[in-house]
Amino acid sequence: MDTRTLLAALVGGVVAFLLGWLIFGMLLMGWMEAHMLSYPGLMKTDEEMNLALMFLSNLSLALLLAWSFGRMGVNSLAGGLVTGAIVGFLFYLSVDLSFMAMMNLFDGPMAVVVDVAANTVWTAGTGAAVGFMLGRGAAKAN
């Protein structure tokens, strides 16, 4: 991996962290709590949450997108947004459907729809940042 990919992943990780906080920690927190089943000990309290591990999780997603986008030739904000949305939608649809099939996590299909939509927006935003960073300084075709 080159420096541009690593820098795009770092910026994408920061964007993913902040966007995730906005979407899941602020906008949808109450809704998701109301529509996901809870078991004692399942969710950590705010004091117990490990933000460093959360950032590493976000950085891992951004690194996956940066590496993938580099292989696919995605190097613009718009390209990253669209590709990130497609990747996010398909990945989180797969994950949430498997959760729905195997676990009692969601209270119904609407929770899956909202979670997939929110994760699609989150991954699209992260992808936009990664795509933008990959295109910075790149020679433009005339």
What are the defining features of this structure?
142 residues; mainly alpha; 5 helices; 75% helix; 0% strand; globular
- What is the makeup of the main sheet? none
Number of helices: 5
> In what range is the share of β-strand residues?
under 5%
* Elements, N to C (H/E): HHHHH
- From the alpha-carbon coordinates, what is the Rg to the nearest angstrom? 16 Å
| Total number of strands | 0
Average pLDDT over all residues: 94
Helix and strand composition category: mainly alpha
Outline the low-pLDDT stretches: none
3D shape: globular
Distance between the termini: 28 Å
Written description of the protein model:
The chain has one domain (3-36, 49-135). The chain has helices spanning 3-27, 29-35, 51-72, 77-102, 109-135. It is mainly α.
